[in-house]
Amino acid sequence: MIRRIWKSISSVYLLYELNTCIYMLDPWEKRFVNAFIFAILGLLIFSSYTFLPDYTRRLVYAFLPAHSMSELDRDNPRSMEFNIRAT
User: Fold this and answer.
1) What is the DSSP letter of 25?
2) pTM of this prediction?
3) pLDDT per residue over 4-21, tens digit each?
């Protein structure tokens, strides 16, 4: 069981290396490129959660089968409207 999981993880990592062309780099260069890619990915996830919380919540709930859009609309029905007052 553990060997099968390890084999699938290593095959996914091999595909990642082949698609990003980092298989031909030195080990220290691979670590540097991987750290850079994961840092950018982490910052993207953090900033989308921080600056776009409502949109990110809707995106996450759209991919989860346990939640439906009707539940989201019930939570915050006027989230997409702009309240502009004439002064």
Assistant:
1) S
2) 0.54
3) 999 999 999 999 999 989
17 burial (CB, 10 Å; 0-12 / 13-18 / 19+) is: middle
C-alpha of 48 from chain center: 9
Instruction: Please report where in the chains the tokens 């910052």 appear, as a residue.
Output: 43
Q: Which of these, 83, 81, 82, lies nearest to 73 by C-alpha position?
A: 81
Number of CB atoms found within 10 A of residue 16's CB: 13
Encoded amino acid at 35, one letter: A
State the CB neighbour count (10 A cutoff) for residue 48. Answer: 13
Largest alpha-carbon pair distance within the chain?
68
CB of 60 closer than 8 Å to CB of 71: no
Amino acid of residue 31: R
